Amino acid sequence: MAGTRIPLTRDAPGELDGWPDDLSLAAAHPGETRHALVARTLRDAVTAGRLPEGTRLPGHRRLAQRLGVSRNTLVDALTQLHAEGYVRPRGRSGTVISVPALRGPARVDAPPLPLSAWAVRALQGQVQEAGGDTFAVDFRVGQPVPDLYPEAAWTQALARRAAQVTHAHAHDPLGPVETRRALAAYLSAERGARVTPDMVMLTGGTQSALDALARVFLEPGRLVAAENPTYAGARAALAATGAEVTGVPVDAEGLRTDDLPARATLVYVTPGCQYPTAVSLSAARRQALIAWATGVNAFILEDDYAADLHLTSRPPPVLQGLAPDRVILLGSFSKSLAPVTRSGFLVAPPDVLRVLTGTRPLTDRLPGRLDALALADVLGSGAYARHLRRARGVVAHRQETLVAELRAALPDWTVTPVASGLHLYLPLPAPWTEEAVLTSAAAQGVALSPVSPLAAGGHVPAVLLGFAGLPLDLLRDGARRLGAALQAG
């Protein structure tokens, strides 16, 4: 032990009288040494007031026996406590507690955390799904689709690349160049993007990218536009900066560009498959959106979240291909490859990437290099394309089954299949409200997702039915249960 070793003390008759009967050695923490455990036990007893200031400790031999440790271990612990100021030796006549208990004003509740304004805004923007109940059929969105994951292809890619990540390599703040090459080739061929590898940055997913972009471009006093309704995580990330988020209505052609604000720094859109309504932004409005962004010097944040899972028709090319200097393209593999990887990417003009790479060390880290290299192999080998062909067929068949069953069970309701994505958008006929539908469905053992948490202000009442992760028998059962619940109403 460092410092002056505390002197041994003599035992005296009756000196354990008054010693707390239940004061024994605490449970050890992983890796904790014996003397550190003794010191922590006595320190906690002092601060809790169980060994008041001025208390004389028993002789070292008796105290060591009481605690079940050797005398040397006890002396080492008391030496540490002496160095910290908890005990004071009095020669061979004893050792006494030298600090008072930690006492504060009595209160029932802990004081509030001193949260920053950013944290308060971020927490206010969170949308929590109701949980705790068990449902016979769970249509809530965001459910995993475990039977569609390409586990074999991903495992093989990881095994091939594992040895490479153990060797030293140059750090690239954008991510491994071969992964960026593979992504650029894929996005050019499949999504009509105008992209080179030096325009691609790997991210931890769309939410990570949104947070980084929001921090770079937004602050209190600035304005950002977003579709209404929209993905709640996007609105929360944008609002957390203190910027004003203005909702722009959507209709059958997507974002209503005539309702865009006169000024804005950013606009967040999902033009390929609007979330949650699943409509596609029309060609005329695509042109109008780009013209607006150019006129007000705003960047368009294009979230291409569902493009890989198109079901009934191929989605239109990305907006980024029309205006690569004005559009920042966001994408991830959370729908098509999760849970094997949640890696994502963004495609941006060079000046935007320079800022993001400069600020990234303060807020974010690159996705794992092994995952990135495996992703390059899965994309480049054709394994991802084969996986998507199979997944699209399975998901499309599940949608066809659910749509047919719902139309039979709810003949007076409008049930429209989606071209892309993993959920149905079901507008409610009057006089149904979202709350009433959710309550009636739950009584029949069915869980749905409301649209209201995704909307700011007025919106068309509707519910969402996530179908991609459910087998055909549950889809049929869920539709029948909904028919019984909603036709009766």
Automatic annotation (TrEMBL):
SMART domains: HTH_GNTR (SM00345). The keyword Translocase does not apply. Gene3D superfamilies: Type I PLP-dependent aspartate aminotransferase-like (Major domain) (3.40.640.10), Winged helix-like DNA-binding domain superfamily/Winged helix DNA-binding domain (1.10.10.10). GO terms for molecular function: transaminase activity. Residues 32-100 form the HTH gntR-type domain. PROSITE patterns: HTH_GNTR. In the C-terminal section; belongs to the class-I pyridoxal-phosphate-dependent aminotransferase family. This is PLP-dependent aminotransferase family protein. It comes from Deinococcus depolymerans.
